[in-house]
């Protein structure tokens, strides 16, 4: 059976950079997984996630969604973004509308849904993320944690099968962090996959079922979380990436 999403030997170098950010990154992700993506600063985690919904296009290699190669056309990318949601590291890269309501509505409107359906999705996603009372606020006047939750609501309103979250949970207070992880769990129970790129080893040990470690633009390890932290061979292989 084909994977939900597959990164096959991806190579990518940012324009103007001499160092490749991805050097043959390969990873297979199935439905219903809780994945934590670890790796030192600059290992390539964000770059890999930006390939998942076609924001970046690999110089070589292929991204496949349900076995089909991504199509980098307007139509192809819209289809991908319906299924693959990314919450960026910096929510300011994601929020660009005048109000929170407009921002969360943007994705579902782009899907061509009816106004009623969009309203329903926006209200449900805002409620889930605890930003229902912020809907009429300008996005620039929010705190960092509020911006993160609005960005998450905007992605959830699209109803993704796979949610990729780039180090966005670190700025949340402990209460909100628990809420956000509860949202991730609900998505997974529904059959979606959540991938969290983070330096949060607690999330890797206590939340993830699968831990993926990137090193210098490649996936060095992809294994059950319990194994990564206990198997001496894997531990040695992962080395400083997971040492506290
Ligand atoms: N916009 C960019 N332009 C040029 N180089 C970039 C850009 N973004 C990232 N890079 C480079 O690509 C490599 C991979 O970076 P990436 O952001 O994917 O790492 P990361 O694992 O997400 O790191 P971090 O843990 O610091 O977020 C690094 O060498 C980085 O300097």
TrEMBL record:
<dbReference type="InterPro" id="IPR015856">
    <property type="entry name" value="ABC_transpr_CbiO/EcfA_su"/>
</dbReference>
<comment type="function">
    <text>Probably part of an ABC transporter complex. Responsible for energy coupling to the transport system.</text>
</comment>
<dbReference type="GO" id="GO:0005524">
    <property type="term" value="F:ATP binding"/>
</dbReference>
<dbReference type="GO" id="GO:0043190">
    <property type="term" value="C:ATP-binding cassette (ABC) transporter complex"/>
</dbReference>
<dbReference type="GO" id="GO:0006824">
    <property type="term" value="P:cobalt ion transport"/>
</dbReference>
<dbReference type="InterPro" id="IPR050095">
    <property type="entry name" value="ECF_ABC_transporter_ATP-bd"/>
</dbReference>
<dbReference type="Pfam" id="PF00005">
    <property type="entry name" value="ABC_tran"/>
</dbReference>
<keyword id="KW-1278">Translocase</keyword>
<feature type="domain" description="ABC transporter">
    <location>
        <begin position="5"/>
        <end position="241"/>
    </location>
</feature>
<comment type="function">
    <text>Part of an ABC transporter complex. Responsible for energy coupling to the transport system.</text>
</comment>
<keyword id="KW-0547">Nucleotide-binding</keyword>
<dbReference type="InterPro" id="IPR003439">
    <property type="entry name" value="ABC_transporter-like_ATP-bd"/>
</dbReference>
<dbReference type="InterPro" id="IPR027417">
    <property type="entry name" value="P-loop_NTPase"/>
</dbReference>
<keyword id="KW-1003">Cell membrane</keyword>
<dbReference type="InterPro" id="IPR005876">
    <property type="entry name" value="Co_trans_ATP-bd"/>
</dbReference>
<comment type="similarity">
    <text>Belongs to the ABC transporter superfamily.</text>
</comment>
<dbReference type="GO" id="GO:0042626">
    <property type="term" value="F:ATPase-coupled transmembrane transporter activity"/>
</dbReference>
<dbReference type="InterPro" id="IPR017871">
    <property type="entry name" value="ABC_transporter-like_CS"/>
</dbReference>
<keyword id="KW-0472">Membrane</keyword>
<keyword id="KW-0067">ATP-binding</keyword>
<dbReference type="InterPro" id="IPR003593">
    <property type="entry name" value="AAA+_ATPase"/>
</dbReference>
<protein>
    <recommendedName>
        <fullName>ABC transporter ATP-binding protein</fullName>
    </recommendedName>
</protein>
<dbReference type="GO" id="GO:0016887">
    <property type="term" value="F:ATP hydrolysis activity"/>
</dbReference>
<keyword id="KW-0813">Transport</keyword>
